[in-house]
Specification:
The protein is of the alpha/beta class and about 425 residues long. It contains 15 helices and 16 strands. Bound molecules: zinc ion.
Length: about 425
């Protein structure tokens, strides 16, 4: 199958939110608590309106997922905001049943099947120009099906400038993605913002004179002017798809994920033969990336020659500016920050006063009482230069690579996080939560 044909999953249903209701909801649902109260009154309404109002509300609250879980006596509704699941409401089993059927119907999931996982998607039109795709998955559980709705709001796509990059990293990334060939890898666990970063890179390099083709599993956001294809079991895998894509003479290729030797081999080859290749790997840090590629059976010479940049990242929550307070850092906090930064090059270590002020989350309606609102990335990056090439050809261990990267001046994700603590964007607690999990 040619990538031009694509294997894009068919979008089944489409629901639209009336402008009047949108306006009302925007005014009335400003927190999860508002939503919870509203849901009690909506439960008597017709299911179509209930679903539309529920979806619109969670979109306004900037949620990424909505979970509907059947329990013995009722059903639990939870939403994920800034990476954290939050209990929102309990629904009657009758309301749950009605919502379940409505969502399954819309997303093309078989209504009469409830004993095995299924998935589908539908479109939610809040604004005509920016339809939101909702990816639905169902899972059989003890008391009935559990549904998860992934909300793919194009508004959550970011530009390279909004990712939260330190100035020197922003300049470095902008430089590297301009190169005509080579491989740029972004690594981190699921939910660490890898796709958002790669999409930001694509948007940044996109212009009419170049051809960009992607192979993803699944396509998360549809990007204008970019040929996106989606893997399909057996017929269109990352490896076979990538082979077909290379024959389409692209300038830039995005491979959703490298997880097997064959894909690694083709992607490296593409990067060595005049293509700019973006991809992701599941590793904990930048140093682990090379080791992972080698363990997949990739040739060390190809790896070091093809790679141009390795990035690792996590997402941290920003302290809600509507309710935050500042306070003087404790001695322990001062020591933690100083210790964390002490191995950096002298010119990078900031002067830290003994009266250092830190930001302290509180909690208000705007942040659903969590004290945090919105997220931003913390990053570390290794530039693959000649010195690294020589080093990698000796098949070093992860520990050796990490030591090498630090010596070469890499600021680690943790250290990047400490800078964001000093800038009063976030807290030490949040950096520790994210970097030690
Ligand atoms: Zn707040």
């Amino acid at each position: 199958m040619s990538p031009a044909q694509g294997t894009r999953q068919k979008i089944t249903g489409k629901i639209t939110l009336a402008k009047k209701l949108a306006g009302e909801l925007k005014n009335e649902v400003k927190s999860l608590k508002d939503l919870s109260l509203k849901l009690t009154s909506w439960q008597t309404d017709d299911t179509s309106t209930l679903l539309v109002a529920l979806l619109a509300s969670v979109v306004f609250l900037e949620a990424s997922d909505l979970h509907l879980e059947a329990q013995e006596q009722d059903a639990r509704l939870r939403v994920r905001i800034d990476g954290m699941l939050q209990d929102t409401a309990l629904l009657s089993l009758k309301t749950y049943g009605a919502l379940l059927s409505r969502i399954k119907l819309l997303s093309g999931i078989k209504l009469n099947v409830s004993d095995r996982p299924q998935d589908g998607r539908f479109t939610f039109v809040l604004e005509e120009s920016l339809p939101i795709e909702i990816r639905v998955s169902s899972l059989p559980s003890e008391h009935g099906e559990s549904l998860v709705l992934r909300i793919l709001n194009p508004k959550s796509l970011k530009t390279i400038k909004d990712l939260g990059l330190r100035k020197n990293l922003l300049l470095l990334f902008q430089e590297e993605i301009k190169k005509p060939n080579g491989m740029i890898l972004v690594t981190g666990p699921t939910g660490s913002g890898k796709t958002t970063t790669l999409y930001a890179f694509l948007k940044s390099v996109q212009k009419p004179e170049i051809k960009i083709v992607t192979i993803e599993d699944p396509i998360e956001y549809h990007l204008e002017g970019i040929s996106q294809t989606q893997v399909a079991p057996k017929e269109y895998t990352f490896a076979s798809g990538l082979r077909a894509i290379v024959r389409q003479d692209p300038d830039v290729i995005l491979v959703g994920e490298i997880r097997d030797q064959e894909t690694a081999g083709i992607a490296l080859q593409a990067a060595l033969t005049g293509h700019l290749v973006f991809s992701t790997l599941h590793t904990n840090d930048a140093a682990g990336t090379i080791a992972r590629l080698l363990s997949l059976g990739a040739n060390p010479i190809n790896v070091s020659a093809a790679l141009s940049l390795i990035i690792a990242q996590r997402l941290i929550r920003k302290v809600c500016t509507a309710c935050a307070k500042t306070r003087t850092a404790t001695l322990l906090e001062l020591k933690t920050i100083q210790e964390g930064l002490k191995d950096l090059a002298k010119e990078l270590i900031p002067k830290i006063p003994s009266t250092l002020k830190l930001i302290e989350p509180q909690g208000c309606a705007a942040c659903n009482n969590t004290g945090y609102r919105g997220r931003v990335g913390i990053f570390e990056a290794i530039v693959a230069d000649d010195a690294l090439e020589t080093f990698v050809s000796k098949s070093p261990s992860i520990g050796e690579l990490r030591a090498y990267a630090q010596k070469a001046g890499m600021v680690s994700m943790y250290q990047d996080g400490l800078f964001k603590v000093l800038e009063k964007t976030t807290t030490l607690k949040e950096i520790e939560r994210v970097t030690t999990e």
